[in-house]
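User: Can you predict the 3D structure for this chain?
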Amino acid sequence: MKTIAVIDDDIYIGDLLEELLTGEGYAVIRAYSGTEALLMLEKTPVDLVLLDLMLPGLSGEQVMERLEGTPVIVLSAKAGTDDKVKLLLSGAHDYVTKPFDNRELLARISVQLREEKSRTSLKFGDLSLNSLSHEVSANGVALHLTRTEYAVLKLLMDNPGQVVAKSAILDGIFEDTPDCTESSLKIHISNLRKKLRDAGARESIEAVWGIGFRLN
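Assistant: Here is the predicted structure, written as structure tokens:
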């Protein structure tokens, strides 16, 4: 069951949204101020946030600045194009003007949840990777990867069929594994290939001589 956070100080609108969403099979948690919202979201992970802008305490804009990795649909009475553009450029995934049509809102929620799934679940041939749980499987067999092996595989799966230069791989995984070097990268990929073979997966990591690697 997907969980949606409704952050709105208008009790009537909050009740309306909760009834609408629970009727569609979603779990709903609610907050009535920006500060309460951040405390709630620290304790309870959600799949999507419906966010009003005019909140007591921290504003909706301030709340959104602190949300990372969770799709946010702004619900606001501000209907101006400039307002919408500003919010979308600031990180909102969608913008719905109050009063809203229930069917349109449900459709927009469905789109965001579908896109979020595609962002977090990567597939390539018989490889599957979930970037939220860090679970990786090959040919249906769970793989136990090191931090570097996981970072390399995710980068290659983010760029399927494309040759990724060694320098680009090192840059791309630097935050996760700053100690990885060009010489040790070959060892990590060799170990990764072995784990894929042991799981019965087909050979998919191809070395492109003098350049880098790709999933093929």
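The longest strand covers residues 3-7. The chain is about 45% helix and 25% strand.
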